[in-house]
Amino acid sequence: MELQDELEHAHSLASSYVLLSSNPFRQLISKATSDAYYGRRTVDGFLDFMGAMIKDEAGVCRNHNIDIRLLFINSFKSKDANLEALSELKLEGDAAEKVEARKANLIAMVKGAADRSIFTEADYKINLSSQLLEAAKLIPSKVMFDRRLVRLNTAMLYKQNKFNLFREDNVGYTALINDLIVGSIDLPYDENGQAPPTPLDRIDTFLETVSSHIGIFHLDPNRVLDVLLDFFIKELLRNFTFWIELFKRSKWVESPERGSPIMAHLLGYKFEYYQKYEMTNSPSELYYGCALLIKCGLVRLYDLLPYLHPFDANMDAAKKKYMEHMNKEIKTNTGGMLAQFGALGEDGSTERMEKPKAKDGDGDEDGDGKEKNRYNVNDIVELTKALLAIGDIYHAELIFAKYDKLVDMHPEIAHYIYRLSDVVLQNAYELYVPTDIKERFILFAQRAEESRLKSELGGTDKVTTMEHVLVTNYMKEGTLDSTKTKCFNFFYDDWKKDLPQCNSFQDLMDVFAPVMRLAGYKMYLAPNLTQKLMLIVRSLLERESEFPGSKSHSLAVIREFLFPAVSFSSSNPGTMAMLWDILELLSFQERCSLYGEWGNDFYKRTIECKLLKARTERAAKSVMQRVSKNDVRQCGRDLGKLANSNPMIIFNVMLDQIQSFDNMAPYMADACRYMGDFAYDVLGYLMTEKWTGYQGAGRMKKIKMKGDGINATWLRALSVFSGMLYKKQGIDPTPLLRYMIFRLHNDDAVEDLILFNEFVTKLCGIEIIGSAMTDDQIMAAACSDTVRTEAFQPVSADNRRASKRVINRLKETLQANDTALQIIVLLYRLKESLSRQTSLSTHSLGTQVDTVHQTITQFMELLTTIFDANEYDALIPDALTLSKNYNLPSSLVIQLVRPKTRQSLQNYQEPTGEDANNPDEPHPVFKPLIDQIPQIVSDDSILNTITAEFYVIFWQLSLYDIYVPEASYQAAIKKHQDVIAACRDTRSTFFLSNRPSVVNKTERQAQASLEALQEDLPRHKAHVEKVMKLLQASQARWFPTTVDRLPLISSIIQHCVLPRSIASETDAVFCAEFVLLMHRLGARNFSSLTMLDKVLSENLPTALIAFTSYETTIHARFTYRIFAKMSEWHQQEQEYLAGAHGEGLIGFQKKWNVQSASQEFTKEDLLSFQEFKRVTHKWHLKTSLAIEQALSSGEPNMIRNAFLILKQFIPHFPIIREHGQVLTKATNELASRERMDHIKVLARSYLGLLEKVKSRWKTKNKFLGIEEPEPEPPARTERATNSGTNTPAKSSSPRRDDKHESSSERKRTREDAPSSQRSSGDNDKNNNGGSKRPRHDNEDRSKRESSSSRHRSTQEVSSTSLSREGSQRESGGRESGRESAERSSARESTRETPREPGRSSARDSPRETTRVRDHVRDAVREAVRDTSRLPPKESTRESRGSNSNAPSRKRERTEEDRERERERTDKRHREERSSREERRERGDRGERNDRDRERDRGRDRDREHDRDRDRQRGRHSHSHRRR
């Protein structure tokens, strides 16, 4: 087994054997011999191994052309030389013993080989030394052997043959040639006059003739062989078989395995003759003759190669020159366009570089001007062609192994390789390709041949008998020369005989691929072979179930052969189309894998691939530089032609250019119209790669979003291009949707939503309007599709809706694999994940949430726009499935099924008679969904306060169902009527400036739209009337009669109004209209006044704190619509009475409890118009306070939301002058001092709006309907001051001038407080020593406008509480209960402000918490005072007059007190400003420490303020006692 293992190892190394170089096989032979020589292995074991190797029963060495006998003899010779050298050293001791042991081993090896007949004595005598031969007993005497050897050599070298050269040579060779010719001259010629091949049975006669002539005339055998080779080459085309067989039987060839070195040398001399003497091209027969001799084993390739031109040194030089040329071409094509031009000349012009002229002596002319004759044929290339032409792949591979760039330097060799590959592939073609396809292509070939003959001969019937001519050029095989009536045939018919065959799909890579690899990437030169291979691969993919495991081999063929064939083809659209038919059968993952390897790996494999990439990139850039609006079509054609062969490179350059120059995106989308399906598929893959920001291996990905939350320019450009491409070319949008689904699984997918937004906008014309929707558009959204389409028609033509074909393809893509539903679910998942983000700032988080929100709204609009009712019903599952299987929230589930319910409601026909609906049960359209609601809602407590029927009705109805905007319909009708009139008026500008066809088309379109509108309006009215009857019948079941109004209203707002009012602007308007509709319906147990009070009083802080900018804008429209309605009622008493006191309207009851749900009430229970005015003032006041608090909070999100709300409210708020002045002051401060630019822009914009509406401002009294008091004359005031009163000290009257007012808060507190309260406060101040801050300290406080709102609030609370003390004591505790109610109301108002988890709030800071609480308390107190204390007009005037005559109890503060207070205020201001700046610089990391520090400072300031107040009271008390 050890010998067998050693033999197998040797056989495995045989393939690595290379002559004239060290290799593992040669080293194995040397090691085996050395081990036996040194005694490391037994001599018998070595002899067994050597004998088995030389015998070569498996033929391994013979197949690899290895002379194994020679290798072992050379090893013996090396050991003999080593032993002889050691013997001459005359060593002693152990060294001498080792030498003797080695000598004994070598003698045993020699004798053993001779005894086993492995080597003959002649082999030993020729190769071994005489000393070794004598020691081995192979010769009797060394001396006699050496003497005889010397004599023999002398005789061979120096002894001269004596014969008559002139007579013997001429006569002998003449006789030889004559006999050779006569030997076959007797054969009959064919009809074309050609001699037939010589019969093989005459070979022995020829050999006897040759031998006799050599012996008789003493001819040189080698010269005789040369003559025979000339005959062989001359008769090659018709008689090569005879001569090959003759050479095999001759004595010149010892064995076919070793060949004849003499024959190789003679052939080499023939090549040398043509190279040096004839200086002409060697005949093709010489190359084919050498190839046949090599293939038959008569000549060894490596014996002939040294004679072939160019020689090894020249071949290496040619290879080096080729590589340098390729590298230069790569560098030239990689550079810019300036690389083609030289340096600037003296005149500043440039000229294209000229080729360098040849140096002296390097030309092809001699000194006389005559051309030198040069041998320019590459013998190696021609011999390789000949070998391949006769089917000798093995020896051709040996040449390619030695000259690795031979095929690249001489591409014509590839034709010969592909000719063999076609034969190798034939069996697979017959086995796998269906018969009908094969017959079809055979028919095509026949038709092509008939067409050629018809063009050449005038028809197939005129074809005459052709003369068959044998040629050496295989390319002429089967061709005809119609003029000479010749048919050419290749002379060697057996070239297919020894070729391997593909008999299974496994052989595609094991047998076919090795042959194909010899030619490199030049399969484009063999279109027929490419077609055959494509048909096989396509058949295997189509019948994959019949051939398991064939797909991997098919993919390997595509990757290794078909893609390179496309790349190197010169824009062959047919090849690309056939390849796409194959790729269509693969999945997108498999195609993308192939594309990725094609683009990232293939163009780096060889230098030819690198040059191809450089040239293609240069061509693509050259086209891209010419792209313009007027030239886009031609540039598109050029790009399409280039993309037919190298789409990966072309589109890569194109997309990079689009990212750099975003204005190219629309043009390039139009230029892509000339691409094929394959190119579009590659473009989809590359766009997917570019969308990720990938820039190549080893480079960082591009940043998709800037620090300010704006998408990068390159991504916006790609998004526009992608949307325009899918729209204009109508290609499959699967790559984009697939990419979006993949990205939406990640939490950072917001940055990629711009791709989806642009895609939807371009294809469906659905733009993300955001907060830019006008009132007309919102009203149009409540109309029919005709009005809505016209109202939302995009301004830009690029955003117009795509064609029906494109929309249908989009619908198919969204329907496949539940793509649409996946996107919806993933978008919601992304929005939920953002709500849990803690690492983002408030602004960034809000921006991202808004982006996702707008995307969801846009996608929902897309689904309802492109899908009809039945398609949408099949696309979206039922509500229970959405809730249970996809875990979607109830609000989203109800929103998804709303179009289905709407369609059912519109199509529902009310039954009559006995089948009429039971009015006490829910409507049949809503009933299935109502039954599912308990399983859908996440919080079961919802249904404890509101019924499932109301929940379904609220969420399923739309604005179209409850509101008919007739004005929008009438405006649209009038618009189309005007268009029709303009088209019919022959004098109109439109008629005169357009062609009649355009006018007629416009008129037809306008008439069709007009007819549709005239049908839509009555249909809409009828639908709303039907819905109103439904609502009227069901309103009594909406709310349980056992639930109190406050929990009920809170539940409605929390679970219905708030979620839907921030969904979209249309939904926000629906919420407002539905709230008013519930009031008009007189819904049982529904307090409209409580709902309005909650919305307008307590809902605003929620929008300011918890909502994002987009949500705030949407919700503000809901709030504004109700606010505007209340403002209209406030202005007209009749409108208020009609809207609030109408028949059956119960919503404005002042007292409400559960028992009042029976709707039994009197008109006195309803809120009067005067009370409504006071409540409206409360809403205005709370709105003003909330907005002011937000503007002074320092939180960018709250400030931004405040301005967004103010812009919406500008027609009706502020309307009271005091509120407007406060807002103006706060806005001015932000506009001048705010560091954030976007806040400053909002502030300045709002100031401009305030200037426009300032003229409409009213005073508080006028707003409440109270007469303004007459101004008091100065004398009266002075008399009142100096008259006898209980006040012993002087007191100055309060100043009315605006410039003396310290701040807006104190001004409102003073003006809003009732006269009686101020009078009682002044009186108590005399009795109890209580003191209120004097009014003239406003001069000092005017310098502290920039101090914090918390300090102002603290002072207000203190002064207000002091002024209230006296009145409470005087009234005997009457006000204590009311103040307690006010405080509890303020706490409730503050406590009920909702907050969302993860959102920043003003309550996070203790300082801000105090500020919010104080403002809310003041608002509530003032509202309560206005509602409960305001006297009738007469008594009010009385009170105001008495109050103005009463002397003031306040004293002036000393100059020292004012100075001290000013210093303290300045110090506080500096500290707070420093604290704010430090907090901004430190950021969120030090926010908690800042709050703690600020709280401590606030406590210190409060204590200091209390001490100052106590000291002031003490001074006043002491002064009073002294007086």
Describe this structure in words.
The protein has about 1500 residues and is mainly α. Among the domains are: about 1-160; about 410-585, no CATH class; about 1075-1265, no CATH class; about 1305-1330 and about 1345-1395 and about 1405-1435, no CATH class. Helices cover about 65% and strands about 0% of the residues. The chain contains 71 helices and three strands. Strands 1-3-2 form a three-stranded mixed beta sheet, with no helix packed on it.
Q: Which features does this protein show?
A:
mainly alpha; 66% helix
Terminal Cα separation, in Å? 136 Å
Secondary structure category:
mainly alpha
The main pleated sheet reads as: 3 strands, mixed
Tally of individual helices: 71
Number of strands: 3
Outline type? elongated
Report Rg. Answer: 53 Å
Overall pLDDT confidence: 80
* Uncertain stretches: 337-371, 1275-1453
Helix content: 55-70%
Tell me the strand percentage band. under 5%
Query: What topology, given as strand order, has the largest sheet?
Result: 1-3-2
Biased composition (Polar residues): 1280-1292
Family: Belongs to the THOC2 family.
GO molecular function, one term: mRNA binding
Biased composition (Basic and acidic residues): 349-361, 1294-1313, 1336-1348, 1366-1440, 1452-1511
